[in-house]
Design goal:
Structural class: alpha/beta
Largest sheet: 5 strands, parallel
Shape: elongated
Number of strands: 15
Number of helices: 22
Helix content: 40-55%
Distance between the termini: 62 Å
Strand content: 15-25%
Length: about 575
């Protein structure tokens, strides 16, 4: 068994290697970058798929790193026994040969533009501080004052707009070589700015920063940018003709973000968990980047680590809280009957077909349902199972939920949204009908609720049981108890009045896939209540009057029957 610790949340390449963490070798990413010779490369991948660690790896490979006393650091040892070392001298010649600017924008999630801008100034100032040793060179005497103004965060707005370009010019003058620019999570401040209502201000700043650094910068060797979503050229990358976008639809670089099947099998074998592979595959596989099948690396590492502590640990949705699920709720809130039907089909394992738009802005995400579908696809909520070119020259994708983890997110978020909505719904008519044994009205109310919400029917009676129990739980003067063991079995639901002088109720649920079986199933539920003597607990609890409900469901239709019961 491999004794190396598993790197949960470790995104610094040097720390991962020097501290002995388990590492899945992605160093051929370096070779492919050099082979493709892209000038400005934008990689869009979902959150927690290894973007930051890859950027750190690029920095440690390419950068001519210096200490404060201008001593060069040799990082060759970090790449010992890795695939890139077998690529040949033409690739190894690039190791430690370039000045590198490495900037992350992921910390700029703030409630207003002023605070977000200050955080970005700190990030830029930190990168200036990392390279401050270059000011010892007299060739940079003319740049020293401007450099220190930015370094100490005292410069004006125009200086920060131009700060990456200026730093690359200083580095080129010092090293005599052009600069590699790495920008990680470039769209985090844009997404946050949109949700916090200062999108235009943030877009203006990021556009200026990128235009100077990536479009008009003669000191640029090449750039690598990462994010979740491709923001249209008109919004951020204005006039950037040398931009190459590598999204999850592109076949290039497919295996470098996330884990491949072979890598996950090896991980399981290394930790003597081969018997858990199928379960891991069911929960965390399902993504397709280009033509490569990919597992969610964040969740795989988390679960394997949990299994090394307790081999019977159940899988869970580790990815659920790593990014905002606001878009899921928004999709549900905007859903008409057609979209609800599509979501239900997806949750039950089906597919939908949608046109793909790679060039959208955050401000456009909620303008059309098509944009929401696209946003959710590119951020990891759906996978591509097929595609075609339509007669309208649009590219259409067949989408599905990738795995049980994401399916769980949909169910949980949908149910949380539904419960919130039910709290604001007037349930007086439903409650009154239940207590008065008005089966027709109760049937109408339950059917109306079913048609309003998004449902999953593959959970059989459990789904409907939870639904009705939730609807009745707030009924004034009554308490609900589920799955009580009584008589010769376990009844679905007791509804007990606080006063024992009033009538108590037993509810039994049945489901069917055929409309014509609704009434027979409701009758079967009533007969089960009597045959298994579910009223025994109520009698022991002091209730003399008991009524029995048999409720059957078929999709969004139901049948409600009532029969006066007896207590022993």
């Amino acid at each position: 068994m491999d004794s190396k610790p598993l790197p949960v949340g470790i995104d610094n390449f040097e720390h991962l290697i020097t501290r002995g963490y388990y590492f899945i070798d992605k160093t051929c990413f370096i070779k492919e970058l050099l082979d493709k010779k892209g000038s400005v490369n934008l990689f869009t991948r979902p959150r927690r798929f290894g973007k930051t660690l890859n950027m750190s790896m690029l920095q440690y490979f390419f950068e001519d790193m210096r200490t404060d006393d201008d001593t060069k650091k040799d990082n060759t040892y970090l790449f010992e026994n890795m695939k890139i070392m077998e690529a040949g001298e033409e690739y190894l010649a690039h190791m430690g040969s370039y000045p590198v600017i490495n900037l992350t924008l992921k910390d700029a999630k703030q409630p207003d533009f002023t605070l977000a801008y200050e955080v970005l100034k700190w990030q830029i100032a930190d990168e200036y501080a990392r390279h401050q040793y270059i000011l010892q060179d007299e060739r940079l005497a003319a740049e020293r004052d401007t450099y220190m103004e930015i370094r100490m965060r005292r410069a004006d707005r125009s200086a920060y707009n131009n700060s990456i370009k200026f730093l690359s010019q200083c580095l080129q003058k010092y090293y005599g070589k052009k600069v590699i620019i790495l920008i990680d999570e470039y769209d985090v401040p844009l997404e946050n700015a949109f949700t916090q209502n200062f999108y235009n201000e943030m877009t203006g700043f990021i556009r200026s920063l990128f235009e100077s650094a990536l479009k008009t910068n003669s000191s640029l060797e090449f750039a690598v940018i990462t994010g979740c979503l491709r923001i249209s050229k008109e919004s951020i990358f204005t006039g950037l003709n040398n931009l190459e976008v590598i999204s999850i639809l592109d076949w290039n670089y497919g295996e470098y973000f996330g884990f491949t099947e072979q890598e996950v099998r090896k991980l399981c074998n290394d930790y003597e968990l081969g018997q858990k592979y199928d379960l891991i595959k069911e929960w965390y596989n399902g993504y397709i980047f280009g033509n490569t099948k990919v597992y969610n690396p964040w969740s795989v590492i988390q679960y394997v680590k949990a299994l090394t502590t307790h081999e019977e640990e159940f899988p869970r949705s580790y990815w659920a809280n790593t990014s905002s699920n606001t878009v899921v709720r928004r999709l549900i809130e905007l859903a008409d009957d057609s979209v609800k039907s599509e979501l239900e089909n997806l949750i039950d394992g089906g597919t939908v077909e949608k046109p793909v738009h790679e060039d959208i802005t955050y401000s456009e995400v909620y303008e059309r349902m098509e944009n929401l579908w696209n946003f959710m696809f590119f951020t990891g909520y759906f996978k591509k199972t097929g595609e075609r070119m339509g007669e309208d020259d649009m590219r259409y994708l067949t989408l599905a939920i990738p795995n049980r983890e994401v399916r769980y997110i949909f169910r949980e978020k949908i149910m949380a949204w539904f419960e919130h909505k039910m709290k604001t719904r007037d349930l007086t008519r439903l409650h009154t009908a239940f207590v008065n044994k008005d089966t027709q009205t109760l049937e109408e109310e339950l059917t109306a609720v079913l048609y309003e919400t998004i449902s999953s029917f593959d959970e059989s009676e459990n789904y409907y049981h939870g639904l009705v129990a939730g609807l009745l739980s707030g009924m004034k003067g009554y308490r609900t108890k589920s799955n009580r063991e009584t008589g010769k079995g376990r009844c679905d639901l007791f509804v007990k009045p606080i006063s024992r002088r009033k009538e108590a109720f037993i509810v039994e649920f049945k489901t069917t896939k055929k409309i014509k079986e609704l009434e027979p199933k409701a009758k079967e539920a009533l007969q089960q209540i009597e045959d298994k003597k579910y009223s025994l607990e109520l009698a022991d609890d002091g209730y003399d009057i008991v009524g029995n409900y048999g409720i059957s469901f078929c999709g969004k239709d139901c049948c409600v029957m009532f029969r006066a019961g007896t207590t022993p």
